[in-house]
Amino acid sequence: MHASTAFHRDDDERESYGLQERYISSCSVQSKFNSLTLPVWTTLITNTAYLSGLLTLDFSLKKQNSKYPLVALYTDTFPAEGHAALEARGIPKQRIEYLLPKTGKDYSNDPRFYDCWSKLTPFSLVEYDRVVQLDSDMLVMQNMDELMEMELDGPEVGGKGNKVFAAGHACVCNPLKKPHYPKDW
Questions:
Q1: From CA 85, how far away is CA 71, in angstroms rounded?
Q2: Are 134 and 60 in contact (CB under 8 A)?
Q3: In whole angstroms, how far apart are CA 20 and each of 17, 23, 35, 99?
Q4: Spatial contact of 153 and 70, defined as CB atoms under 8 Å apart
């Protein structure tokens, strides 16, 4: 699935804080910027199966000259060798809780869908001006910084505005012809 979600937390303060640096060199977002906020790309990583995709996503964002950092949102299941790879490349990371609904659902046909619930976490990351959630298997072919800069309603409308968040489509296809996918995919 290829989806991206953007939402706005605060007014555009990043220029007043001098946050025009191209990339965050620290592996801890908060250690470098303390309580300052900034727009970020985020992606979820729970295991090393998607690590090469995350590294490619980070590389492609940088290759397309994005002004904004990619923050890897990791759960406790992400192993030490994965952390070492992120740190070696200076990719900021942030621990998040692993989310699952209280009423269980069997995803044994496609276990990767257990991790998808944790992709809801960006909606709770109030420490950033804006968050755009990207899948770790995306390849950025052109600069997408306009997603960080498009006008969305601010927090003062309490989620009742017309542009509270923006979302892109998900890939609803079934090239592997998996029988448990909806028939119209």
A1: 14
A2: no
A3: 8, 9, 16, 33
A4: no
The pLDDT tens digits of the residues spanning 94-146 come to 998 876 677 777 777 766 666 676 777 888 888 888 889 998 888 899 999 99
* Degrees to nearest 5, angle at CA 162 with 158 and 164: 50
Query: Apex CA 77: angle with CA 6 and CA 27, to 5°?
Result: 60
Q: Determine the Cα angle at 61 with ends 57 and 65, to 5°.
A: 165
Helix, strand, coil share (%) of the chain residues, nearest 5 = 30, 15, 60
**The token pair that represents 82 in the structure block:** 């994965």
Could you say which DSSP state residue 99 is in? P
Topology given in CATH for the domain delimited by 5-167: Spore Coat Polysaccharide Biosynthesis Protein SpsA; Chain A (3.90.550)
DSSP 92: -
